[in-house]
Task: structure prediction
Amino acid sequence: MSTVAQKQLPLRPAGPATVDRLLEWYDAERRNLPWRTAEGARPDAYRIWLSEIMLQQTTVKAVMPYYGEFLRRWPTVKKLSTADLDDVLSAWAGLGYYARARNLHKCAVTIATEHKGRFPRSEKALLKLPGIGPYTAAAIAAIAFGEKTAPVDGNIERVVARLFALQLPLPAAKPEIKRFAETLVPEDRPGDFAQALMDLGATVCTPKRPSCLTCPLQPDCHASARGIAAELPRKTKKPQRPNRFGHAFVALREDGEVLLRRRPDAGLLGGMLEVPSTEWLAAKLPTVKAQRKAPIEAEWWPVPGAVVHTFTHFRLELYVYLAVVPVETSLNLWAEPERCRWTPRRKLDTAAVPSVMRKVIAHALKWQDK
Ligand code: SF4
Result:
């Protein structure tokens, strides 16, 4: 059928019948995810909250092992509230966006101390908790407590923009998409409706090749009828990420311990451990100037190549120096000794070291081990 002919189809607006078909599809096809309860069982707000915080900016596959480990160590929000923040940060290492892990812990403490260990049941009250934004509050309220509200994540955004053929580009389109999503939320199964849209977006209405022929929304989908599904949602072009440069100093003691420094609590990678490094600047420091920033007196050897890491807002290039030093080596003032510690290599796996610093250490040790 030509696009012209498709445009002339008298499409029904999406409504209750659309929702019924979607829920029917969900009952048959829903993904089996560990944070979901069996059909008819009562959802657990702790599990939903934990999974939703972990799933921000990453995939289900990446989250699975972390989710399992968190639940094993801290099976309830009360248990998590009594955990050492360092342990939480270590268990989070590799998931990125560490502010989320700090807020996760803070939120657990708030729930334990101010809400008697129980999640508040309304979207409005959930929104007041640390680290819980509009999407997460709506997701917990709908899924765990059956509140009639519409959480809108990336998957849902895509499905709704296509279903109604909304042309405004993201991110400006967000409020409009939310409004359209809200028109569809059913009284009786708001949580299943949200999860059905999430599943549909993840498995059928995928970004590049939506499978419209097998989609339960197809009879009412305006983007599919107009042959523009893969073009939606439109997006405003993102400005290119700026580059930043820095120098990192991997000091390895003869007894196999590595020098690490704790980053300030506020800001990027706050509270995590790092290899002492210079500031991350828009231009690369000359080598002589950079070496003056070394945390200890030693023979610093420039490791060939560089470590590149991409953060949300910038791309970082780190030039790495390596020194093997005697056990009795003392720290310079620059290294802020009160924030520095020697850490055995065998403990690096479980220490709160972010991915970028793991890359730096691996890069240096690869050459050291040669
Ligand atoms: Fe997405 Fe196609 Fe389904 Fe429309 S019909 S919601 S574009 S998969």
Summary: Residues 10-231 form a domain with the Endonuclease III; domain 1 fold (CATH 1.10.340.30). The beta strands are 243-253, 257-262, 273-274, 301-302, 307-310, 315-325, 340-344.
